[in-house]
Write a structure and sequence with these properties.
The protein is mainly α. The chain has one domain. The chain contains 9 helices and no strands. It has helices at 2-7, 18-53, 61-87, 94-104, 116-127, 133-143, 145-158, 162-181, 183-186. Helix 7 packs antiparallel against helix 8 (162-181). The longest helix is centred in the N-terminal third of the chain and has 36 residues, at 18-53. Residues 1-10 have low confidence and may be disordered.
Length: 188
């Protein structure tokens, strides 16, 4: 009995352990809830940021709902893919990853389309350690081109103010979290 307690970390991967069997469902539920709540929160923050950077803020209620729903679906899907990848150890691991990529695409509609290259390049550069280091560095450098242009535009629209600094920092936080959440889909 002591050996089981000492060697077991109660992770969902520890098959056959009575402690991990009971906590497995709890762990899965927590992961999915974190994705759901986190996606919702990220969607709300992203929409607030969009309103904040707009020089002519005219947003529809339907558009706001769509953005929050798409972020919620995106993050929840990434949570489920994370759980599936823990248990799928064969060539079939590609299926959830393809679903994750497809469920990410709605976030790149309309104005979000310009960030697609940044998110793709940065995600591959960050989450694919099996790539050559020089290739990863080049991908990461290229991923900064569009954000630098967007930050320049924010400062051009609002001037060098603390508000502009806040807009730029929130932009960086939102897309950094976006790329972080994409790990289950992109990671090797």
């Amino acid at each position: 009995m002591n050996t089981l307690v000492e060697c077991c970390d109660s992770s969902p991967r520890c098959e056959g352990c009575p402690r991990s069997q009971s906590s497995s469902t709890v762990y899965k539920t927590k992961v999915i809830l974190v994705g759901l709540v986190g996606g919702f929160t990220l969607g709300v923050v992203a929409r607030i940021w969009m309103r904040w950077i707009s020089t002519e803020p005219e947003f529809s209620f339907g558009g706001t709902i769509a953005i929050v729903v798409f972020f919620t679906i995106f993050a929840t899907a990434q949570s489920i893919i994370h759980l599936l990848r823990m248990h799928i150890k064969s060539k079939w691991v590609i299926a959830p990853r393809v679903c994750g990529a497809i469920l990410t695409l709605p976030l790149f509609m309309a104005a979000g389309a310009m960030m697609f290259p940044t998110v793709v390049l940065a995600s591959i550069g960050v989450w694919r350690p099996n790539l050559n280091k020089v290739v990863r560095v080049i991908l990461l450098i290229l991923s900064f081109v569009i954000p630098v242009i967007i930050c320049r535009d924010i400062i051009a629209d609002f001037g060098w103010t603390f508000g502009s600094l806040g807009r730029v920092l929130l932009f960086v936080v939102i897309y950094s979290l976006f790329i972080r959440v994409l790990r289950p889909t992109v990671a090797a």
